[in-house]
Amino acid sequence: MVRSLTVRKYCVNFEPKLNVMQINFTELKITVQQAIDCLVQKDKEGTSAKLKEAGEIINELMDFADNDDDLIELSRYQVLLTQLEQKNAG
Fold first, then answer.
1. Residue 36 forms part of a structural domain
2. What integer best gives the mean pLDDT of the chain?
3. Given this model, what pLDDT does residue 65 score?
4. Residue 5 within a domain
5. CB proximity list for 21: less than 8 A, separation 6 or greater
6. pLDDT, tens digit (0-9, with 9 covering 90-100), for 53-63
7. Is 18 a member of any domain?
């Protein structure tokens, strides 16, 4: 039986048999894609808002990341956000 824990609106699934939590990256992926869409449309304010929201999602999910794979994936998103912020500023 998989139990879900909702962190704000982000989902973390818990597998009792494996004693493992699995992070659902769907909301983060959607938010990052929205930031990229705003960047393409040259909407600096919209891009900044979406990047800030994505950063908050990452910070919250970091609290629940208990395996290396999730931490690696979250760090990739952090690098991507940094690059998008630089692109938005330039």
1. yes
2. 83
3. 85
4. no
5. 5, 12, 13, 14, 15, 64, 66, 67
6. 999 999 999 98
7. no
Query: What residues form DSSP beta bridges with 23?
Result: 12
Note whether 24 and 12 are within 8 A (CB).
yes
Counting the structural domains of the chain, the total is 1
Asked, for residue 11, whether it belongs to a domain, the answer is no
Mapping DSSP to helix (H, G, I), strand (E, B) and coil, where does residue 57 land? Answer: helix
pLDDT by residue (tens digit) across 32-85?
A: 999 999 999 999 999 999 999 999 999 999 988 888 999 999 999 999 999 999
Specify whether the CB–CB gap between 24 and 74 falls below 8 A: no
Q: 81 and 54 in contact (C-beta within 8 Å)?
A: yes
pLDDT of residue 28: 94
- Domain of residue 60 covers 26-89
Please state the pTM of the whole predicted model. Answer: 0.78
